[in-house]
Design goal:
This protein is mainly alpha-helical. It has a domain at 9-95. Helices cover 76% and strands 0% of the residues. It has helices spanning 2-7, 10-90, 102-112, 118-121.
Amino acid sequence: MEDTILTESPQQTLEQVREAAALLELIPRLLEENARLRVQADEATTEAERLRSEVERLRAEVQRGRGDREDLAEAFGKVMGEMGQIMGEFAPRFLLPYRPSPFAREAHAHAVSGGVSGAVTGVNGGTNGAATSPR
């Protein structure tokens, strides 16, 4: 090993010393950057933990909302069922007596007077299920 040191030129030795000095100057910058990156990593970890807890809180809130929605749907279904039952009981009481439309009377009167022949009596004198007037 001493042989290699002796065979090196002074210029090579100076170059190695310069490289060693440059590396020694680089060490403090690397340590500073390492410290800065550690701080950023700690902040990111803290933020991730905060976000995880917020997500868990929001998930619980969503579950609560789903439960409330199901409860409301069930209650609404019951109310609508009861309303249907009530309407079934009371609707017949509110039915008005049947009165034919005035247009139905006019059509009937017109048919009776012979104004509508094909529609009432059908083709070839058939009735097609409609009442015919005596002729």
